[in-house]
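Standup, Tuesday
Yesterday: got the pipeline producing structure tokens again.
Today: sanity-check two examples.
Blockers: none.

Example 1:
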Amino acid sequence: MNDQYYTREPGSESRPEECRFSFRGHDLVFTTDAGVFSRGELDTGTRLLLEALPENLSGEVLDMGCGWGAIGVSVAVTRPEAKVTMTDVNLRALDWSRKNAEKNGAKVTCLESDGFSALGGKMFDAVITNPPIRAGKQVIYRMFAEAADHLNPGGMLFLVIRKQQGAESCMKYLQTIFSSVEKLDRSGGFWVIGAGKEDQ
């Protein structure tokens, strides 16, 4: 079964596998699974994205397309004053996100949501995503546009994308909807991009 990890109910048999990594002085442990992005390891893109995040993240933070929870749980553990929401369309991923948050003592809210569909008018100070590139440009660009509409003044979108999968065109698109766009990291064939809205 060749599941896409952005399928609501993966048809592949569950094959849990543990993943451990350290982030900003905290040793974290997760359970990953088949049918969920990056089973058994923290993928390079997500690692680079995490390392590039500002250390003073606070307020309402959204991990969009959270998978098994690497980003949202890491932020919640290291920035307990932040209010972290984690969303995904993949129900297996969400189940593991909830369990991994509990396992690591992270206080988060996990919701099934396709983009911002289940979030109503909720606004965020930071939206963080390793977007599902295989879902296609139309899907991920809609996610970015919706993120712009759901950011508080001064809020930021943080994302990672492979250079060979359209990082340059992605950056050009982001410049049409955000007031500031910058490369926070460019290594390992990935670009980590921060896109911000002006304070009002």
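Example 2:
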Amino acid sequence: MPAVAAAFDALRFGRENTLDLRAHLPTGPEAAHRAEQFLRERQMAKAAEVLVITGRGKGSVDGVAVVRPAILALLAKLRRHGVVSAWQEHTAGSFAVQPAPIRALLESPRRRGQPAPPAIEDPGGFDGMDAKTRQALRRLAERSLQALGVPATDAFIHDEMQRQFSLLAASIPPGPGRDARLRHAVVTALDELDDAE
């Protein structure tokens, strides 16, 4: 029966939307770090649903699960931060997770005690960014300010571009094509704002 269930999971979620944390036997913090990277990347890819396999903790020291509670805490945190919209127990050792729309990441309120997103490398002018990406990011910043009723002065637009870039860039792994993936995330967020109106 487990082989049949695994086959159904492969059809439902697919390989790219499945994270199996049992394979490497991580600590709780290691599992949370890997899962956060995975969930942020799947949010940028607009995955509808992903599977996070934690195991039940039977192989843990004294049979006390460490990965599963770490992932539950992470899911709650990521929901507050606009990365995850919902999750449910799929099996006793896994969770089916729905990534949030990208606009939820940009709209999530900063809470007291929550660290600010990391600053971008070139806060002066986004010089290293592709012109098309910079233009899309500016449109997104203008739309966000408009929705808030804030005047779209150059200073406010720049600050909003910086904030949104920092939030999106944290979810896009470095490597070739990063600028294109960032532009795709910005354009997707703009589309989601259009759909919400």
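Quick observation on example 2: The first strand starts at residue 18 and ends at 20. Residues 2-100 form a domain with the Ribosomal Protein S8; Chain: A, domain 1 fold (CATH 3.30.1370.110).
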